[in-house]
DNA sequence: CGCTAAGCGAGACGGTACGTCAGGTCTTTTG
DNA sequence: CAAAAGACCTGACGTACCGTCTCGCTTAGCG
């Protein structure tokens, strides 16, 4: 699930190390700075405008305090919206959190195919490692996935809008490589994604072991060449 | 993280299919049947007895309703204990849930070494797949891990008492196999655990894709022989 | 205040017993049966038609659920009108309720003067007792008066369209009787109305004691002859 | 119903005119001034103390804003209590308002029997007139009775603790007078109360006509001597 | 063996958030 | 272009749990 990282920060490995932190969406700050608090009576406001305010506030709150402290009540207060309106559009706190996250990050997914599947996987995996270790998104994604275990709405949103698309990109890349003869014809691409990105999530969510670029390289080596003691080509 | 499954039911692959469902701790039902509801005044009761009642009630509630609906208030009510007592011993709802879970399952961990690392991994992995797909423990573990993302107490408990021990067993087995020359000397055992059990958790927690024995075998094949298109020995 | 009862069903005492139940306005049911629910876009509709629908809906709702459950929102929904329209014509929920009540009951007030003030008062008073004890109007009037204590619009409407006219009729009758020499020349007619109808309201609104025809007769006897121990003519 | 006035202000007619306004319970202000706001953690507080705070706050709010603006939420806020606590003890807003009113006024009822029923009734009635016209209690009682029309809890409280006791006192006095031969043996004391105090309530709640001492005297004269044109003793 | 104090059960307390409902006010859309 | 439609914010509702704390008791443990 979710190979190509959200936020997108670096395509070629070299640029990875100095990647700028994605920050909780600069556009949010800008928007709120200009269009903030001009009390305008109690009547109707354009739906789109309200929706924007709510999502902005949700994102800000989410990045500021995480899922703990993320409350429909507080989102409403900070958005200058009413709870009623929020409940009209989002079925649960989780659904709102998901929308808020996506609204703030709006990752343009890419999984460039250079022809060298090993290099491409390495690049994507390292980007992902950077995202979940060096930016606020890491803890946030963990908390969203955590909450999704008891919030079906959030689970659905994450699978549809987050995990699904990223999985698809990686699977496509793997299939292409297989067709080029770079990978064994019997492979199951989804499983490989599970063994690369899933291994990272395992450390993020369960064991808490450190997630480094070396770790990512190691995962890749294992799955490419196997771990049995036999002649390898390279690493 | 957690290779040998809790509950442990079958060591050799053949026995897996007919494994008895682990059931939510028969000892609980027995205990509660006998020692249920004889109102006994408000004075002091032996700490051990009270503690037992609380853990039993926690486990029952946990298996009956999952983490949603698992409330300190309700545990107290069903245990005939007071909230004060619970707060005296457990720092958070998550800590209590973890203790309740372990109290009910009390897995005796084993990772038998037959000398054939491939068969041993296969057996252990299949047992784990069975646990998280065919028993109530699957959803429950997912919910516990989910809550652990925002509850440090629960996270600590899970890592210390659940993930840690299971990871250690598997790592030990892998190290043994390496020393026997069955695995490449450069391998990192923890990474391999991430790529086998972690891949299953990925599907359980994130993508929701099906987790089957075939999937487990596939994971194992990938990591043993690699996925690059080159001559393999066997599968 | 309100001597001559709304709905009015029987003028001469004898007919009282067999009075038909006033029913919550048959004309309403008829109207709603025909003009029900043909969604017709959002544009303009003849004001009169909309107004009629609203009043009908208000009356139906009022008689069905009382002032609790009587809501501008629900009236709008059941009338197929919008809240805007209602707020344009009625200043408050109470004003609408009052209008709805009068729309449904449309009492033709009468206080026939037979020349015998004692018989006339007795007849009117008994009719009023019947109205507030044997029909739905009793509870409703109580609730309207109740709400009027905190809703100036409703209070004004009730005094202008309900209490005022009825008070006037009774006062006129009493003045006529005084001019005929049947009553003491120093009397204050308004006070007498307070002591006859007001006494009934006291039981309806405050003490909850039973309101019977015997009670009405007793009120009349007291006020006609006094309660001091002295020779009376008759009762 | 409720002949002897709450707050009790004057027994003999002469003192009536200069009666001091009963003020919204001086003891409240005193209490709140001294024992206000020493934050003491979140745990339990003596029930009696909390109850006192709540009733004080309720009374203050009630006298300050009337039933409109009287909200459980605001009482809780001003009392420094929690809504939960209030809902634990009072079934509805009306019940709390009633308790708050009685807590603040704590009228010591008296209906002194001088042997002259006419003088006693006159005194009591004038006191009542003063109460409902010259003090804040008038509007408040009206609003409480108003709300009682749709709040059974409030209705019960008013009848039990307000209307009932006052009715009883007056009825007893009337019965005594009857036994002394001052009143006709056939009278129904409850009806007479309805015709004296009830007539005042009628003006207060329904017609809005002015309630003066002259009006009270007139009510008394009517009911004592009757209104038919016949020789009277005096007025 | 009797007294004391440790410590549990009970449950009320101040809070926070929930999800709902109605009141009024305003913009948009339609006839 | 006027009026109906309907979405908006506000504020209160009544409920559920949280974590804290007071109280009444019982029983264990000390004298």
Number of helices of chain A: 11
Largest interface: A-B, 58 and 58 residues
Instruction: Please describe the biggest sheet of chain A, giving its number of strands, its sense, and whether it closes into a barrel.
Output: none
Low-confidence stretches of chain A: 6-41, 231-235
What is the CA-atom radius of gyration of chain A, in angstroms? 20 Å
Q: Tell me roughly what share of residues is in helical segments of chain A.
A: 55-70%
By CATH's scheme, which homologous superfamily of the largest domain in chain A applies? Answer: Tetracycline Repressor, domain 2
Helix and strand run of chain A: HHHHHHHHHHH
Judged by helices, strands and strand pairing, the structural class of chain A is: mainly alpha
Which shape of chain A, going by the Cα principal axes?
elongated
Strand content of chain A: under 5%
The protein's oligomeric status is: homotetramer
Would you give an account of this structure?
4 copies of one chain form a homotetramer. Chain A is mainly α. Chain A has 2 domains: 79 residues, Tetracycline Repressor, domain 2 (Orthogonal Bundle); 113 residues, Tetracycline Repressor, domain 2, CATH 1.10.357.10. Chain A is 64% helix and 0% strand. The first copy, chain A, has 11 helices and no strands. In chain A, helix 3 crosses helix 6. The radius of gyration of chain A is 20 Å and the shape is elongated. The C terminus of chain A is likely disordered. Chains in contact: A-B, C-D. At the A-B interface, helix 8, helix 9, helix 10 and helix 11 of A face helix 8, helix 9, helix 10 and helix 11 of B. The structure holds a DNA duplex (31 and 31 nucleotides).
């Amino acid at each position: 699930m979710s190979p190509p990282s959200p936020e997108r920060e670096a395509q070629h490995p070299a640029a990875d190390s100095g990647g700028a932190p994605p920050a909780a969406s600069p556009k949010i700050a800008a928007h709120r700075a200009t269009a903030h608090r001009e009390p305008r009576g109690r009547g109707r406001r354009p739906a789109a405008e309200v929706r924007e305010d709510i999502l902005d506030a949700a994102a800000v709150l989410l990045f500021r305090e995480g899922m703990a402290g993320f409350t429909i009540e507080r989102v409403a207060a900070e958005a200058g919206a009413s709870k009623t309106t929020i409940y009209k559009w989002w079925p649960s706190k989780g659904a709102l959190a998901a929308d808020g996250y996506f609204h703030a990050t709006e990752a343009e997914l890419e999984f460039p195919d250079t022809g060298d599947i090993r290099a491409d996987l390495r690049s994507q995996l390292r980007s992902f490692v950077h995202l979940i270790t060096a930016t606020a998104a890491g803890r946030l994604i963990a908390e969203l996935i955590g909450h999704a275990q008891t919030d079906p709405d959030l689970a659905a949103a994450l699978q549809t809008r987050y995990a699904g698309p990223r999985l698809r990109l990686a699977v496509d890349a793997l299939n292409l490589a297989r067709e080029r003869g770079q990978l064994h014809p019997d492979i199951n691409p989804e499983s490989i994604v599970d063994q690369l990105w899933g291994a990272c999530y395992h450390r993020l969510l369960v064991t808490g072991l450190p997630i480094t670029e070396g770790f990512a390289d190691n995962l890749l080596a294992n799955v490419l060449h196997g771990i049995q003691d036999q002649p390898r080509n390279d690493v």
